[in-house]
Amino acid sequence: MNKEVINSELKYKAVRSSGAGGQNVNKVSSKVVLTFNLENSNALNDEEKIRLKEKIASKLTQDFVLILTCDDDRSQLKNKEIVTKRFFKILTDGLKVPKVRRETKVPRAVKEKRLLAKKTTGAIKENRKKPKL
User: Fold this and answer.
1) Number of domains composing the chain
2) CA gap 30, 20 in Å, rounded
3) Is there a domain that residue 39 lies in?
4) What CATH number does residue 63 fall under?
5) Can you say whether the dihedral through the CA atoms of 74, 79, 81, 85 is positive or negative?
6) 84-129, pLDDT tens digit by residue?
7) Global confidence as pTM
8) Is residue 47 a part of any domain in this protein?
9) Residue 107: strand, helix, or coil
10) Domain range holding 71?
11) Any signal peptide, and if so, which residues (predicted)?
12) Which of 64, 60, 68 has its CA nearest to residue 41?
């Protein structure tokens, strides 16, 4: 994954925010929409593209375009920085290769401890019974 090439492939669009905010919302286009075409990206190899398609499938459109928006701040520049950070976090999380889990044996000490506990509880229950005459 080459961050510089990916950064050049990102498309930003400023849009007017919705919701409360008075005149500022009506006048200023502070909401930022980021789009990234996963299929046509030159920064990712085929293996990375396949992994991302599986991991972030719910966030992609049918054309494999990732669309992220941010209207957290009143500043367009800050919203652009926030949405870029979110994008790279999604990308790095999607590209993580999970560790292969190897099965391990149950240690002998653990088995012996369990058997000892069973014997002691059995002895306690045995002592509760009436004695046989």
Assistant:
1) 1
2) 13
3) yes
4) 3.30.160.20
5) positive
6) 999 999 999 999 988 999 999 999 999 999 999 999 999 999 999 9
7) 0.71
8) yes
9) coil
10) 3-95
11) none
12) 64
